[in-house]
Amino acid sequence: MEYEICLEPSGVRFKADESQNIVEAAKAHHVAIKHGCASGSCGDCKGTILSGESEQGPFMPLLLLPTERAAGMAILCKLYPRSNLRLQAEVISGDVWNTEIVGLSKLAWNVLELRLRPEKPYPYRSGQYARMAVPGQENQWRSYSMATPPQDRDELVFHIRELPGGLFSRWLFYQAQCGDAITLGPPQGDFALQDNTRPLLCIAAGTGLAPIEAIIQESMHTGQTRPIHLFYGAKKQRDFYHLETLQQWAGQYAHFTFTPTISDGEDTQWKGARRLLPTVAANGHWQDHEVYLCGGPGMIEAAIDLLRSHDVPHAHIHFDSFAPNG
Ligand SMILES: Cc1cc2nc3c(=O)[nH]c(=O)nc-3n(C[C@H](O)[C@H](O)[C@H](O)COP(=O)(O)OP(=O)(O)OC[C@H]3O[C@@H](n4cnc5c(N)ncnc54)[C@H](O)[C@@H]3O)c2cc1C
Ligand code: FES
């Protein structure tokens, strides 16, 4: 059964089948509702149901607070129409940024640092991400977080992990060269340093380190001396990158400390901490901290459960989930 969807305040209308979520139905009609993962993990497609019947599919806990649900808010990439609908939803501009690859270097065996120079300023906040068009593939975009604060330089820096069979990451690892062009959409995401003086607890897994590094550097740049502790998880020792950089920060900024952890019990060379979240749980009282989490959706969900059981308020937990593109 097909229904008519009307978006406010733009007044844009399109048809959606009851088996299509609102974001994909809009896309099929060349309407770009703001979204990130398209799989219920990031919260960037939040909208409000103004009228009509719908069914909300499952999404990551904490994306909608109980007060937001009560106010009719919904996760549109998991919302299915059951009647004609009027929705408040952000339609993003078709603005794109042409960029040139100016640096490609290995950070770890399966992680590349990508540096892009945009043709015009790219105004973003530390913690945000960019959607990149996969070169040579029509309508395929992937999301990557900027790894440095905006004031650092006129280049955008990303940490990108290779995924077996990955459309974008394989292109980047095996074909891309300096001088190649990459198109970016506008910066997105609400994952950002909060304006308060609470100590920071940062938890990063894998390339989840990228936006966390941007946020930590931003806090350091502001000259604040609140304590920052980073727990940084990898599967094996060889998967870590930037350990020297973190060591250097710890030497330079007395208030910054970090704990690297690995999860592979067979990596017997490793003398440090093991298992990311149990290490977090065993190493402090986090109720008074502002918490920043970044990594895969499984780690994020488990971390949220852990933090809630340690009485960290909802409002102090901020996360960016590196979910596969839905
Ligand atoms: C907001 C956001 C920010 C992100 N930032 C970064 C970043 O800074 N660095 C980074 O390396 N990645 C980041 N990601 C993940 C990234 O967008 C892509 O999902 C990832 O690089 C895979 O793209 P691909 O085209 O190489 O693989 P695809 O062709 O999309 O997928 C190949 C295979 O890998 C699986 N897969 C895809 N993504 C993942 C994943 N994240 N975890 C596990 N399996 C997966 C797919 O299901 C598929 O089977 C971010 C994701 C989001 C939503
Ligand atoms: S785009 Fe809907 S939750 Fe990420």
Strand content: 25-35%
* Major beta sheet, strand line-up: 17-16-15-14-18-19
Residue windows where pLDDT falls under 50 for at least 5 positions:
none
Give the tally of structural domains: 3
Q: What is CATH's topology name of the largest domain? A: Rossmann fold
Q: Label the CATH architecture of the largest domain.
A: 3-Layer(aba) Sandwich
Q: What is the global morphology? A: globular
In angstroms, what separates the terminal alpha carbons?
23 Å
According to CATH, what is the class of the largest domain?
Alpha Beta
Q: Please count the helical segments.
A: 7
Number of strands: 19
Order of helix and strand elements from N to C terminus: EEHEEHEEEEEEEEHEEHEHEEHEHE
User: Quick one: CATH superfamily of the largest domain?
Assistant: Nucleotide-binding domain of ferredoxin-NADP reductase (FNR) module
Tell me, rounded to a whole number, the average pLDDT: 93
The helix/strand class is alpha/beta
What Rg is obtained from the alpha carbons, in whole angstroms? 20 Å
InterPro entries: 2Fe-2S_ferredoxin-like_sf (IPR036010), 2Fe-2S_ferredoxin-type (IPR001041), Beta-grasp_dom_sf (IPR012675), Cbr1-like_FAD-bd_dom (IPR008333), FAD-bd_FR_type (IPR017927), Flavoprot_Pyr_Nucl_cyt_Rdtase (IPR001709), FNR_nucleotide-bd (IPR039261), MRET (IPR050415)
Pfam families: FAD_binding_6 (PF00970), Fer2 (PF00111), NAD_binding_1 (PF00175)
Organism: Acidithiobacillus thiooxidans ATCC 19377
GO molecular function, one term: oxidoreductase activity
